[in-house]
Amino acid sequence: MTPLILAAPLFLLFELWQLVISERYVGIKQIARNGDPRKLGLSEVTAFFWSGLILAAWAWQFALLFVPFTRVYGLVLLIVSAVGYGIRRNCGLKWLLVVLTLEGAIRIGLLMSLLGMAWRRL
After folding, report:
1. What is the pLDDT of residues 38-83, one digit of tens each?
2. Which terminus of the chain has a lower count of CB atoms within 10 Å, N or C?
3. What gap in Å lies between CA 37 and CA 88, rounded to an integer?
4. Which residue has the higher pLDDT, 25 or 66?
5. CA–CA distance, 53 with 116 (Å, rounded to integer)
6. How far apart are the first and last CA of the chain?
7. Neighbour count for residue 8 (Cβ, 10 Å)
8. What is the pTM of this model?
């Protein structure tokens, strides 16, 4: 088994954390009071770790393309992330939470499937 698979649980936790953070900053309460999450401002520590982990997740997904039995997972994770980013850039604030939640759910499902496949290969 490749060591890349060992990082999958960490990225699964990161995806769950992203859902919590996105609900906090772009949640229903923010939408109800027409709050713009870009004006709230994340703390520097949160922004640093969030940005760093997003970049690490992209690098990890790209690295999955070089392992024969994880290529499909890496490719689909990259596609979901790229398409989700494109949709998020062009949708309004009211649809942002829906897109974030759906995108996160798809990535969580893919990561769980990847972990299941790795478990079966043991």
Report:
1. 666 677 888 888 889 999 999 999 999 999 889 999 999 999 999 9
2. C
3. 13
4. 66
5. 23
6. 7
7. 20
8. 0.84
Query: Residue 53 is part of which domain span?
Result: 3-121
* pLDDT band per the 50, 70, 90 thresholds, residue 106: very high
**CA distance linking residue 89 with residue 96, whole number of Å:** 9
Domains held by the chain: number: 1
If you average pLDDT over every residue of the chain, what do you get? 86
The residue with tokens 């062009």 is 90
Distances (CA, A) of 7 to 14, 68, 77, 93: 11, 17, 14, 32
Amino acid identity, position 114: L
**How many whole angstroms separate alpha carbon 38 and alpha carbon 28?**
15
